[in-house]
Amino acid sequence: MDFNNSIDFSHKKSFQKFLASSITIGGKEVKNRLFLAPMAGLGHVAFRELISQFGGFGLLFTGMCSAKALPQENRNISAVFKWRDEELEYLVCQIFGSEPKSMALAAKRIEKEGFFGVDLNFGCCAAAICKKGAGAALLKEPNLAKDIVKAVRDAVSITVFVKFRSGWDSDPLSAAIDSAKMAEAFEKAGADALVYHPRVAPDRRLRPPKWEHIKLIKDIVSIPVFGNGNIFEPLDCQKMLKESGCDGISIGRMAVAKPWIFSSIAGNSLAEYENIYHHTATCMLNLLLKHYEERLAVKMFKKFVPYYAAGFKFGHSISKQLLRADRASEIKQVIDAIFKEPFEQPEAIDRPNLHLLL
């Protein structure tokens, strides 16, 4: 996995070519090195279908699924454990939990359904998750985290990912060094690839991620390592690759703000879209209505709104207008009204308004 060390990432074409190249993970070939990061409440089936229409990604990840609930979940009822059959070949299901047995049973269900792989969440630092001993809380219990990886590896033959962040030490470098030791343990326990977010858990998003710390993980393991955190535009990919030598990039919040970001980074043309922002909002609403009943679809659209609005100079105004609408028909009217004047379009910005990116 060291061939990328010889690539000069200072040139745009070089890093685009690298990200567009295939990679083998767990014996399976993935067509490129750009992944959608798993996001609770945002990585649902409708959003993934929207991203699939734009293309440019290698793998998509579901939102977080409870390992305890998953073996009994009904895909026709669940808002999270729900998918399109045609996406299974490039879809990874993320699970959270704190017990090796329940995580293994969930992984078996995921394998049975035909997913590309399973992703173990050791990175979420939301209080509701950590109080259950799951997510980033497992970074305080390295032996238990390792046992979970081994239990899942022993239970399934599909690709096993581990998504984690730096631990709980207030010093980012010290935490990253501890994370490197955990990464080595995860590899020995059977993980096929790692997705690393170089922020300590207490930070959440207060301080920027330390992309250079990804290199500590990359240097200690032989399996692929994907970087995650604050990728807002193609130049960020270039910088992360130069600083870390990672094998690919996982994009979260910015993919919600601009679902075409994978296609854009890959250098694909988006000229076919007369107004990509109008198209995206309308399509997101329609896809939510396709997969969910209206009340839930409207609720989920409103979770999408702040991220989408973050792509505009005066995004707060756009966000307020969309959030005031309570029915799908009202939302559609607001979207059309925002973009109705061809010469007075909202001003889009390259780097998002971080106050709106929750």
Model description:
It is a single chain. This protein has helices at residues 12-20, 45-54, 100-113, 127-130, 142-155, 172-189, 214-220, 234-244, 253-257, 261-265, 276-291, 294-309, 315-324, 328-338, and strands spanning 23-25, 28-30, 34-36, 60-66, 91-96, 117-122, 159-166, 193-200, 225-228, 248-251. It is of the alpha/beta class and 358 residues long. It folds into 2 domains: 3-265, Alpha-Beta Barrel (TIM Barrel); 276-338. The protein has an 8-stranded parallel β-sheet. Helix 11 (276-291) runs antiparallel to helix 14 (328-338).
Key features?
358 residues, alpha/beta, TIM Barrel, 2 domains, eight-stranded parallel sheet, two-stranded antiparallel sheet, 14 helices, 42% helix, 15% strand
